[in-house]
Specification:
This protein is of the alpha+beta class. It is about 60% helix and about 10% strand. Strand 4 and strand 5 form a beta hairpin.
Length: about 375
């Protein structure tokens, strides 16, 4: 009995191995064909291996007559059933894959992908991944279009703001060169005005360079543990002269006295100073600009409140866009400076610190808020 079992196992294993090798060879030759063909090969290999083993054992055991016919008939029917089921499954898989391919080919230029329903689990996972990929592509396209629009707006804005002072400087230089202006008072005034315009253009170039570093990801931060109270004091001291010239009052509040953060003191001070200067520019004379540092929900907060009269609700999401100037209430004044670069630079610096920046209408004006992670 044991010898017969060993013989049965050896025969069936040998035949199964030969059929398996043949099946693998067939699948390698058909590796670029349809999945349905692959499934058919698997079904045929299974049926042939089973049928060959049963036939061999039946003949070896010398089963004759009706018992042998019954065994062979059962095996044949089982093989036909297996091939039929494999054929149906292959057709379903091929049909589902073609539906998925059709959905991909039907994606419009807008990138709206509609995953087909009723797909097998694996194809359903692929369809979901394609949906997410198309969504990321759409968002990337929208960001690219927004950046391109901002770039064009920036170029137009900078060209305009460069042309005006350069034309004035050229006219004054020609007047001095041709001797049209000779009295000392006018000459001194022309020299002073030319120097003022040069300083203004130099500041604009510095802002453009800083903005290009931010957009290129080349802004390198030298982080150190600093207190926001020191930043508030530096911002107020740096903005004291323009505030006095316009008659705007500056006040600072720090609560609690020491709020530690890990930040680049120079860059973060520049961001806060941009917000304060912007607030002074748009606050009428006798108005007040309040700079405050506090802690909220485990975050260090810096806020700058002005008296600009508020920002239109539709413009609030665009305030930090490059070269955005908004409505008449926030257009540049006689100083010729605008909020387009300063606020965009402030946002880039804050985001480089893993912080957040935003603006809301509050009281007689608006309030710019910076949130930074607290230092451990």
């Amino acid at each position: 009995m044991i010898n017969e079992m060993v013989l049965i196992v050896a025969v069936t294993a040998g035949l199964g191995l030969l059929v398996a090798v043949a099946g693998l060879g067939a699948m390698w030759l058909l590796r670029e064909r349809s999945i349905g063909v692959m499934l058919a090969v698997v079904a045929v290999v299974t049926v042939v291996a089973t049928l060959g083993g049963v036939v061999a054992i039946t003949l070896k055991m010398i089963i004759e007559g009706t018992p042998r016919d019954i065994v062979l008939s059962v095996v044949a029917v089982g093989g036909l059933v297996g091939l039929g089921v494999a054929s149906v499954l292959a057709r379903r898989v091929v049909a589902a894959s073609r539906r998925l391919v059709g959905a991909v080919q039907a994606v419009p230029a807008s990138g709206e992908f509609t995953p087909p329903r009723g797909l097998p689990a694996e194809l359903g996972t692929i369809a979901e991944s394609l949906d997410q990929a198309y969504l990321r592509l759409r968002l990337a396209g929208e960001r690219e279009r927004a950046l391109e629009s901002a770039r064009r707006e920036l170029v137009a804005w900078v060209s305009h703001d460069l042309r005006t002072p350069l034309a004035g400087m050229r006219a004054m230089a020609e007047a001095l060169e041709d001797g049209v202006v000779s009295d000392s008072g006018t000459v001194l005034r022309y020299h002073r005005q030319i120097r003022l315009e040069v300083d203004r253009l130099s500041g604009m170039v510095d802002d453009l360079f800083e903005l290009s570093r931010i957009h290129a990801g080349a802004l390198r931060l030298s982080r150190a543990r600093i207190g926001l109270g020191d930043l508030v004091a530096d911002a107020l001291a740096g903005a004291e002269e323009p505030a006095r010239a316009k008659g705007v009052r500056l006040t600072g509040e720090v609560d609690p006295p020491v709020i530690p953060v890990q930040a680049d003191a120079a860059e973060l001070s520049r961001a806060l100073r941009n917000l304060v200067v912007n607030a002074i520019r748009h606050t009428p004379g006798d108005g007040t600009v309040v700079v405050r540092a506090s802690i909220g929900d485990g975050t260090a907060l810096l806020s700058v409140a002005d008296g600009c009269g508020g920002i239109p609700v539709d413009d609030l999401p665009r305030v930090f866009d490059v070269a955005f100037r908004g409505e008449t209430a926030r257009t540049p004044g006689a100083d010729g400076a605008g909020a387009g670069l300063g606020l965009a630079i402030a946002r880039g610096i804050v985001e480089a610190h893993e912080g957040t920046i935003g603006v809301v209408n509050s009281g007689p004006g608006c309030r710019f808020e910076i949130g930074l992670p607290l230092s451990d």
